[in-house]
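Q: Hi! First time asking for a complex rather than a single chain. Here are the components, and I think there are two in total. Is that enough to go on?
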Amino acid sequence: MQRTEISAYGEFGLIKYLTEKFKIENPSTLKGVGDDAAVLSYENKKVLVTTDLLLEGIHFDLVYVPLMHLGYKAAVVNFSDIYAMNGAPKQITVSIGVSKRFSVEDLEQLYAGIQMACTKYGVDLIGGDTSASLTGLAISITCIGEADEDKIVYRNGAKENDLICVTGNLGSAYMGLQLLEREKVVFGANSEAQPDFENRDYILQRQLKPEARKDIVELLAEKGVVPTSMMDISDGLSSELLHICTQSNVGCRVYEDKIPINIQAVIMAEELNMSIVTAALNGGEDYELLFTVSLEDYDKIVGMEGVAMVGHITKSALGLQLVGREGDEIELRAQGWNSLEE
Amino acid sequence: MQRTEISAYGEFGLIKYLTEKFKIENPSTLKGVGDDAAVLSYENKKVLVTTDLLLEGIHFDLVYVPLMHLGYKAAVVNFSDIYAMNGAPKQITVSIGVSKRFSVEDLEQLYAGIQMACTKYGVDLIGGDTSASLTGLAISITCIGEADEDKIVYRNGAKENDLICVTGNLGSAYMGLQLLEREKVVFGANSEAQPDFENRDYILQRQLKPEARKDIVELLAEKGVVPTSMMDISDGLSSELLHICTQSNVGCRVYEDKIPINIQAVIMAEELNMSIVTAALNGGEDYELLFTVSLEDYDKIVGMEGVAMVGHITKSALGLQLVGREGDEIELRAQGWNSLEE
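A: Yes, that's all I need. Here is the structure of the assembled complex.
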């Protein structure tokens, strides 16, 4: 495979080369890459801003994450934060720091993944930065989105008796990660070993190529439902429930048997002697939506494809309770990923 | 000095602790830190967005850069990009990756510097991210600003006969860097050595604590001058002139004896046997403004404090010419800092 050293391009040449294939699609993007700053127009909408910094060895492992997937995921997880406000992502900036280990072709792969995500979600790349790095790859993405002011959903609006809803299923991305980590160890011991990924495509995809729930945000708008609170599930259901309950000053009861789980994730958990419920509660990286709706919206939510009701909001004094299959109650604690402790 | 390990806080606790001292001042900031995304209102203004990724060992050296200065500078260089569009910075997001070498007190220093810059320039901190890093410190800042659409100044509007203007003076930040690098080598050889910084406070300040030219942007507005093109000088005058001339499809003539230079920078250059003109043309990190104005604005610009006219715009075919003190002409080339080649 061809390898072009990054030094063959200057900094400006490289940015230009990597970004020139991106097209500007949104009317709110007046000026993208190429000046001191991008220029956007948000006259009739509010502006949403979210940002993420991803560092090699902390947030991703290039031993098993292809660069194209990494680019796709890095963009999508930012889109997910905008959807979690009940908004729509419109622009991103992408800055990267790269060590000499990486070639121009590597970066093309990374940007191809970012472009795929941008095209799928209708987002414009409007700026960024490339620089050298002493150690590995650093990716910083800022995403800008739009929302109508009266439709923005914060974390602090959950009320007693609201229904707690979760999209898709939880724990699959974590089980995909466990599988990749196991195969990495096997491969380390015997480089002839072929990874055993049969019937595990779904959990791998959840880990390597997650999607943001644009569909659900659009479906809620179609049905005229504005959640009372919402966030995306990036650190595990427990951690996110804690955020919503703390910021809304409420408690919750969540039923273990209502938590949506995929069969491939269950099988993988059994094989690894892990609890799939723990993975769903604390695993992270699902990028599903957790939201609460008023009881009046019950009829609009029940039967909505891709949405499961998992419990309800209670008074703050009742705390955060997980009701087990036998009716037993456990206090929920946040044990989500904490990348500061790694 | 007290040392609190970062692990004593969780990720969320740390963000909260570091950002809770920041106040929200701008009416355009509807919601800052604490949700999936910040919410801004830009109904009567256009939105400007710029971003920078700074990596330890590439963009800064903590041997001689105090963390508070680093925080200040990291914020200010982003503000500078917004002023360079003839706008005003209003919000920033700050993401950091930190290795175990850093304590909570270190980060407090960094954020104190960021806060000082935010207070001085009237900018709100609205979001960000903290994470572990395997190696050193990574800082990613995105700055959002506002401008009236008809006042935004791009790089591509310079016209033949326009006057070329530069604010402040050039080359001082680079000479400050050379001084710091020299003292670092001296200190490496003899740790008893005391750095010799007498009468060098100005060039040190230019390197360690640069300012963005808010004052000039405000002065131009006051005088009713909208430049035809503008950018900030972060990579040296040559490199920036090349950007403006290329994007505007024009040439330029710049006069060596008109380039504003500070006496401390001249003395330092002599001491180090370096050319101060080369430092001014290619040194970088001045964060002054380079702009062009129509000849009709001559009267408004001449005598404007802090602004020097250094040449004029020509037809593209005439290229980029530096006219020396003896009337000799040299073709300008961009030799600005290229952090990809380090």
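A: Chain A has ten helices and 13 strands. Let me know if you'd like any chain examined more closely.
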